[in-house]
Design brief:
The complex is a heterotrimer of chains A (533), B (290) and C (315). Chain B is mainly alpha-helical and 290 residues long. Chain B has 17 helices and no strands. Chain C folds into two domains: 55 residues, no CATH class; 194 residues, MetI-like fold, CATH 1.10.3720. In chain C, helix 10 crosses helix 12 and helix 15 packs antiparallel against helix 16. The chains are: A alpha/beta (533), B mainly alpha (290), C mainly alpha (315).
Chain lengths: 533, 290, 315
């Protein structure tokens, strides 16, 4: 290129840039600082005119080609079965899974761009939106168009979406409330001639034996108990020491655990395990459970707790362990017992709710939104949205959809994001809890199904669920994030303290916990509890 | 010790040190390549370090057969080129006048720019602005908000200032206009720094995805890094995935993650060797003499 | 702006002078108008958002509709113990970075410059900047694999040689070193680029003259190479000083962990915790405003000092 032409190009480009900026400036002139502009929408009449319903969808970047998150088999199914008959265009608005609240906040603030149906898992976000007056009261709409929703959820689950008696959200329904399970290496026990531990004390003895006798022959690398800084590992341990606030219910938030009687005993026990080298020494680094699973599948770990099913997926931790060590054997067990609760196997269970599904106040399509959710819970729609087409994706066996493993990949891909589209259900909701469990088990590899059954049974024993208050606990939304962070610090510092320093470290961290909101939270929770009784 | 030997020792120490540093920089990349070519079992069992274990190419087959990946790559290349070009034009247009000490208002403009390095309106007003400009879901939302980086601008000003004033003065005496001086003298003398800043802008755009997260809803115009971010990050929200329970979709296999990282990184890595040709010593010197 | 200019010109009372001034400089103003328009629209346009710090911000009322609360949120933040701890840590980590990570690319750039083999030089430059392209999430994973106490590769080697494992990541003092060196590793190569660009301006004739005088390599570096990149170093130093109280989120968050929270908790993670994650925009904005004011003071202060001492500055 010669100098001259280069200059010419530059001039042209500058001209174009100038034009762009001028255009932008003109446009911005009319914007002002309008931050609460009314949602731009023509007439709100629904009679005959085709309208657009915007629905949020989580984008996890896992759309198989040629699908996209906004155009795939499921979106087409929704359009065909729900949209077209009702003269509605259903438009899906993708929100990145890991940044959902940030984006949702911004969309909510924009009013005009927010979808008509939005959802979160986090109750504090829901309560904040409701309290700030940003949500539509769906109570009357449910009366009008939501008969299927009401019978599907039942009053108990609907309650999760209420703020002081007003229905501001429609909760999704959780198929299964089973949460945590313990696994142990049966082959290690056999080698030592030991029985599976049935109490926390026996568990401790077993762990010591694992450490001293090294039945797996892995040498100094042996990890008697796999530990990570993740709820599935520390919650079962803590629950086996705390006294639940009510019979089978207790405060729902994780960071409220330190407010329970017996929490200190749990930390003391953890301290002992750590200092005697019975748990993963680097657990404080392992929030994603990568090391935990790596150690387990390499056969270094004797015992661990996990989310039910977590290690049983195809190509998962257990299958890899069996590949790495063909002679190993893993069984489910219920090892922890709780001396503060009559020696029961106290463990946490999920509430019966899933997502909080909300309709922003700025939405002009609230009636259509409820219609959509009602349609989803009617007929076979949930079944299809979760499983695909009968005979192609699954077969009905004893009323349970059994996924056809041999289906072609493109057939399987139809429901790749089923969990995120069938928002009214968390997991596969077929009927009652028992049916749901069977359906869930049927989705696991054949070889793991028996162990999955046992895992669920263990996870369902002596569970403690969340107490549901009909108004939000202010301190939760205010201090929740900070306290959650503090809980992790308490766990790590208590565990890693030298035994003779445990008291001092624990007191210091707990003091801090109380000061940054713990005492306010405690007071409010106790008041709410009294008000309820 | 003769000057020659001390020279030799200097060279040996120098080259050894640089080689070691290079090695450290390279190893993680080699590790990722190894991961991208290994089996899932070997990766999650921690067997992969610098060489693939149970070698297979399936991760790459998957990346390259994914049309949305390829479209996204094409889009990102064009986006990056366009952004870099516009950013450079604007930055040069700002930098040159601001090197003229006798320009009235120069100080005021400098403060105006420096303030924006520290104060910003925040995420919500910024979104509302983009919406009011009707740029949501358009490429403009990815280009215009970051048009001039004050940091890059200040660097360019520093370099412009270092051009010997005599060169410009001679042009000015010749009666040529400022525009002429800029295009004929200042820019040709500043090729190394311009190449550097272009690289900064290009890399910034290539690696950026936060804006797309906010402003783009159409998967057709997702930048590559957004897709990468989804893969790497979306699986990592432990607490949330736990609540999702059985709703959780299968995790992205590690090998696929690594292959995607490689796929998204190599193109931009290739830019620098190409830009190196502008890093020629003595441009300035030649001009002074000429 | 044109108005100010006009009044200034009228003050001088010389219409002809103004005319010739405009005639002389109009091209520069025309050039400047584009970027300034950009700054006004895209940077100053959303600036009204800073009022959030003085309001009880409600998402649905918008910024204008939310209630004024004066300095209440400032009082709340300044009463938080965590604010001071994270401020201290931010300052500490940035200061250590300034001592270690700031000079690293300068030294590396000079070393590269001193290499005579053009081929080796080119290849190493290109490879050195790879770490800049690896995201912190991935670096974090690699760091854990390398430096874990129980299963990290470095400690496995140390133990095989009969030494004690070093808690690189879980002991707060060792962690500081890990943090610093990860930073150097990640940014030093990338940081050289600017200095290499500056080094192209070195006058080669000076070297020839120095050779005649029999100066050593170190002497030449000290008296010729370094002075020629001094303006670049000063500019970057001033810009860095302006960032002393602001810190990126990813590096401390990902390289940090709960065991070393006492040091790794910084303002950005604090803001994330109290503000963005918990939806308390007001508190987040207060901290942001605090950082902005301090940053501005730092940059103007260091610019002032630099001008006094070296004659160079950025403004």
């Amino acid at each position: 290129m010669t100098r001259n032409t280069r200059r010419g190009v530059m001039k042209k480009a500058m001209g174009a840039a100038l034009a762009t900026v001028m255009g932008v400036a003109l446009l911005s002139g009319c914007s002002g600082s309008a931050s609460n502009e009314e949602a731009a929408s023509g007439s709100a009449s629904t009679g005959g005119e085709r309208v657009t319903l915007k629905v949020e969808v989580f984008d996890r970047g896992n759309s198989p080609s040629p699908h996209t998150i906004t155009n795939n088999w499921l979106t087409q199914y929704v359009q065909k079965e729900f949209g077209d008959p009702n003269n509605i265009d259903v438009e899906f608005v993708p929100i990145q899974r890991s940044e959902e609240t940030t984006k949702l906040n911004v969309l909510m603030a924009s009013a005009s761009d927010v979808p008509d149906i939005v959802f979160v898992y986090d109750s504090s976000v829901f309560f904040r939106y409701a309290q700030q007056g940003g949500l539509t009261d769906v109570g009357p709409l449910l009366e009008e168009n939501g008969s299927n929703i009401k019978s599907y959820l039942g009053d108990d689950t609907l309650k999760f979406g209420q703020l002081e008696g007003t229905q501001f959200a429609i909760p999704g329904k959780r198929a299964i409330t089973a949460r945590y399970n313990s696994y142990i290496r049966q082959d290690w026990l056999d080698k030592l001639g030991m029985k599976a531990p049935t109490t926390t004390d026996e568990l401790y003895e077993t762990l010591k034996a694992f450490k001293e006798k090294d039945p797996g022959g892995v040498g100094s690398k042996v990890i008697p108990m796999g530990m990570a800084l993740a709820p599935a590992q520390y919650e079962p341990l803590i629950y086996s020491f705390i006294k639940p606030v009510q019979e089978d219910r207790t405060y729902s938030q994780r960071y409220e655990l330190p407010l329970h009687e017996g929490f200190k005993d749990a930390m003391q026990f953890l301290n002992k395990l750590y200092n005697e080298g019975l748990i993963s020494q680097d657990f404080s680094l392992d929030e994603e459970r990568e090391q935990l699973n790596k150690d387990f599948q390499n056969g270094l770990t004797g015992f661990m707790t996990e989310d039910v099913g977590q290690i049983l997926y195809a190509d998962g931790t257990l299958e890899n362990l069996y590949k790495n060590l063909p002679d190993s054997k893993v069984v489910a067990l219920d090892a922890y017992t709780n001396d503060n609760a009559d020696g029961k196997h106290i463990k946490s269970r999920y509430g019966t709710n899933g997502l909080y599904i909300m309709i922003p106040k700025s939405s002009k399509r609230s009636a259509e939104a409820v219609k959509y959710l009602d349609w989803m819970t009617s007929g076979d729609n949930l079944l299809t949205m979760s499983n695909g087409v009968e005979g192609e994706n699954y077969d009905m066996v004893d009323g349970i959809p059994v996924i056809k493993e041999d289906a072609a990949q493109d057939v399987k891909d139809r429901v790749y994001n089923a969990g995120d589209m069938a928002i009214m259900a968390n997991g596969k909701v077929i009927g009652d809890q028992e049916m749901n469990e069977k359906a869930w088990i049927a989705g696991f590899p054949k070889n793991n199904q028996q162990l999955m059954r046992e895992s669920i049974d263990v996870a369902n024993a002596d569970t403690v669920g969340p107490i549901i208050f009909d108004r939000p606990i202010e301190a939760e939304s205010k201090y929740g994030t900070a306290l959650n962070d503090k809980l992790k610090i308490i766990i790590v510092q208590s565990a890693m303290a030298k035994p003779d320093q445990f008291e001092a470290v624990y007191e210091r961290e707990m003091n801090d916990y109380m000061n940054i909101g713990g005492s306010a939270l405690k007071e409010e929770l106790e008041q709410a509890l009294q008000a309820q009784n | 010790m003769s000057a020659r030997t001390s020279n030799r020792i200097f060279d040996i120490v120098n080259i050894t040190f640089v080689s070691l540093f290079v090695l450290f920089c390279l190893l993680p990349f080699v590790h990722m390549i190894a991961v991208s070519l290994s089996s899932n079992r070997a990766i999650t069992s921690g067997e992969v370090t610098l060489f693939p274990v149970e070698l297979n190419w399936s991760a790459y087959t998957q990346v390259f057969s994914d049309h949305s990946m390829l479209t996204s790559l094409g889009f990102t290349v064009i986006l990056t080129l366009a952004t870099t070009l516009l950013c450079m034009l604007f930055t040069i247009a700002a930098a040159y006048p601001l090197t003229k000490g006798n320009l009235k208002g120069r100080k005021f403009f400098m403060y105006l720019i420096v303030i924006t390095m520290f104060f910003s309106g925040g995420i919500i007003p910024e979104y509302l602005l983009i919406r009011d400009l009707h740029m949501i879901n358009t490429v403009w939302a990815l280009i215009l908000p970051g048009l001039v980086s004050p940091f890059n601008l200040i660097i360019l000003i520093t370099f412009f200032k270092n051009i010997p004033p005599s060169l410009e003065e001679s042009a000015e005496i010749d009666g040529s206009s400022y525009m002429h001086t800029l295009l004929k003298i200042v820019l040709p003398l500043s090729l190394p720094v311009m190449a550097t800043l272009a690289l900064f802008y290009a890399v910034g755009r290539w690696n950026g995805f936060q804006d797309a997260l906010m402003y783009i809803n159409d998967p057709q115009i997702y930048p590559l890094q957004l897709k990468l971010f989804q893969m790497v990050q979306n699986n990592m929200v432990t607490e949330l995935t736990q609540m999702e329970g059985a709703n959780r979709t299968a995790l992205t296999p590690e090998a696929l993650k690594a292959a995607t990282v490689i796929f998204a990184t190599v193109p931009i890595l290739l830019v620098y060797p190409w830009l190196q040709k502008y890093f020629v010593s003595g441009v300035m010197l030649g001009a002074v003499k000429g | 702006m044109t108005l100010t200019k006009a009044t200034q010109a009228t003050k001088t009372g010389d219409f002809g002078k103004r005319k010739s001034y405009i005639k002389r400089y109009w091209q520069l103003y025309a050039l400047l108008s584009l970027p300034i328009a950009y700054f006004l629209i895209f940077r100053y346009g959303p600036m009204y958002g800073v009022q959030i710090a003085f309001k009880d911000f409600n998402l649905f009322q918008g910024i204008n509709g939310s209630e004024w609360i004066g300095l209440e949120a400032f009082r709340e933040v300044f009463a938080m113990n965590d604010f001071y701890i994270t401020l201290r840590n931010t300052f500490m980590l940035n200061f250590l970075d300034l001592l270690v990570s700031f000079p690293a690319p300068i030294i590396l750039a000079i070393m590269l410059y001193e290499i005579r083999n053009a081929w080796f030089k080119k290849i190493s430059q290109t490879l050195l900047y790879i770490p800049h392209f690896i995201s912190w999430v991935i670096i974090g994973g690699i760091v854990y694999q390398l430096f874990g106490t129980q299963s990290g590769m470095v400690n496995t080697v140390l133990q095989a040689m009969g030494m004690d494992a070093i808690p690189f990541l879980t002991d707060k003092n060792s962690w500081l070193i890990t943090y610093l060196f990860t930073g150097v590793w990640q940014s030093a190569g990338w940081g050289t680029i600017l200095y290499l660009a500056a080094l192209t301006g070195v006058n080669r004739e000076l070297f020839e003259a120095a050779d005649v005088d029999g100066a050593s390599r170190m002497k030449k570096i000290w008296h010729i190479t370094l002075p020629s990149i001094k303006p670049t170093i000063i500019t970057l130093l001033i810009l860095n000083l302006g960032k002393m109280v602001s810190i990126g989120f990813d590096r401390p968050y990902i390289i940090g962990n709960t065991a070393v929270r006492e040091y790794s908790d910084v303002l950005s993670t604090f803001v994330y915790r109290i503000g963005l994650e918990a939806g308390q925009y007001t508190l987040a904005t207060v901290v942001g405003l605090f950082q902005a004011v301090v940053g501005l003071v730092f940059i103007l202060g260091s610019n002032y000092i630099s001008k006094k001492v070296t004659g160079d500055g950025i403004l």
